[in-house]
Amino acid sequence: MNRDSRKLLYDVHGWAGFVVGIALLIVSLSGAVAVFAPEIDRWWNPTLQADRDARVRIDPDQALVRLDRFAALAQAGGLDASLELPNRNLPGRYGILYPSAQQGFDYAYLDAASGELLPPRRNHVYYFLRHLHVRLLYNRLPVGIVGLAMLLSIATGLLIYRHILRDMFRMRWRRDRNVRVTFADFHKLVGFWALLFHIVIASTGTWLALESYLQPVIAAVANHRPDSVDKSGAGAAGETVPRLAPIAPMVARSRTAIEGFEPTYVTLEDDAGRPRVRVSGDVPGLVQQGVSHVLFDRATGRLLEVNDVRAKPFWTQFRHALEPIHYGYFGGVWVKLLYLIVGLLPAALSITGTLLWFERRRHESRAPKAMAGAKAAV
User: Is this model's pTM higher than 0.90 or not?
Assistant: First the structure.
């Protein structure tokens, strides 16, 4: 590689990190902490704190009766009435989202053992961290640009240090008086040893951020078709429904409809006047939370549709594996801890890379002056 090509790579590498440096710092820090966001949310909100082994005595039908005014608020605000069931992220509680004049939205919670309506939550730490990481509090597109810049920085870094694989066991962190050397060694060491993690995080994060802009392409590739059991409705559109079947048996049946299924949400839907119940939940493995579901006719309790992501074509399974890979919620607390530690490293790379970029620019600006001074002395 000649000198001009190497200089160009350094410039692209430096600009890619510098231009989005602050945004990358914010996305990296919020993403690392957001790995433990559900735990932080429970810690800061006494309303969410319950014994994981507490017995659930209130069934979903009873919970909906007690939370009916919040369900009505949700439907009046254009939302589906969606009841969160007691699960590993919300032990011993039912929850329902509804519009709020103060917060924009809020949650009402019910004790699953006593049926008591609980005090409102104190804060929305989980939602703030998630919103900050996913949208920078604004939109997914800037986060997608940050991800692309990170991938560009990784690619140019590999080209600059193309012999790094050969020299990886001879690399040293020289912590001497030369701050630039110290930062440069730290930057290279962190960049190399966390390389695979950073490629995975940057590529999955970029895809998730830009997915909505590429939705037609994704739909064409995935060719998604639900595993339909019976798609006929309870009757014609506008037909009067004589009664509504209880929801609790539907939740129980969903557990047997999909192997290893853990129901987490019950959503009341209205399809052309035909009331339906969607039971969404989690399945074991590398699968996004809440995307598998079982659909019932609420008037009759009849099973309409089973959607187990694990039975879908490869590209659909691949797409729904990206979120758990990106957020690290697929392997328990030790995987989360690893994601927290290694997830902070892009922030360190952003800081050291910016400092090195400024130092390089300062050194380059001094060089012509030094040469001019030397010629004048001659």
Answer: no
